[in-house]
């Protein structure tokens, strides 16, 4: 009976985080962009500091008609938003937020598990673009596939460097082995991992697959109402997952002063800072061209990731 209660409690905690954290990131993006770009609406909606902006967006999406194009593959078209969103819920289950058993479910091969599941989430955009019966949606889906193929490799190599340093693929195991001086020689891998994650999420400046000025809104062009809102929610959930994974793998996760009692606070704080960086990059940098996106992956990130693995091997040999 206690085991069942423990499982239910952990699932409830993960579900609560999945429902709240993406919405908090979405609200923070509204406020940050309003401050940085002088946008009036998000600062005044509902009164005090525009607290009702997110509510207004939700009501707007709920009121819009749910339309499926006549020539679309109806089942795939309707399934795509769920495929894009649900994998991030699965990933949250295995991310440790504190010392000990402060994790939904520890997985021995946690690093490979989270990367594989995150890759499934990206396929939601490809499915939506393919099933929409729209040439702009198809082009957006093809760009999504090209980015997935290009940036999955450096992301995996960067994560492999940390796993090699810790001698385990388990996320809690990596945190148990983590030392503060890892920040000095794993920083390159951290930058590669975070940059590749941004590209897989199609966040600016890697938003060529949804470029509204070129291909309307890419794979999401034909989506309306709540189905479109689910794609946006998947984007914000992806920001939470990417920021949390970067914090766990490269910034020590729950490590910090009074970690035994406040470890979860350090994890959330590091995740929040990285999520703000994602928002700041959207406001600050223009969109890269498709050829620039591919060149960055294959000529910059992949060599840097390989260099990080080589450096990790040298450091491991020296330490031993």
State the domain count.
1
DSSP strand count: 0
Radius of gyration: 20 Å
Strand content: under 5%
* Helix coverage percent: over 70%
Order of helices and strands: HHHHHHHHHHHHH
Shape: globular
Distance between the termini: 46 Å
What is the number of helical segments per DSSP (H or I, 4+ residues)? 13
What composes the largest sheet?
Answer: none
Mean pLDDT: 86
What structural class is derived from the secondary structure elements?
mainly alpha
Poorly predicted sequence stretches spanning 5 or more consecutive residues: none
InterPro entries: NADH_UbQ_OxRdtase_su1/FPO
Subcellular location: Cell membrane; Membrane
Transmembrane segments: 79-98, 110-132, 153-174, 180-199, 228-251, 263-284, 296-319
Protein name: NADH-quinone oxidoreductase subunit H
Description of the molecule:
The protein is an all-alpha fold and 320 residues long. The chain has one domain. The protein is 74% helix and 0% strand. Helix 4 (74-93) runs antiparallel to helix 5 (110-131) and helix 6 (135-166) packs across helix 7 (171-177). The longest helix is centred in the first third of the chain and has 36 residues, at 2-37. It is found in: Cell membrane; Membrane.
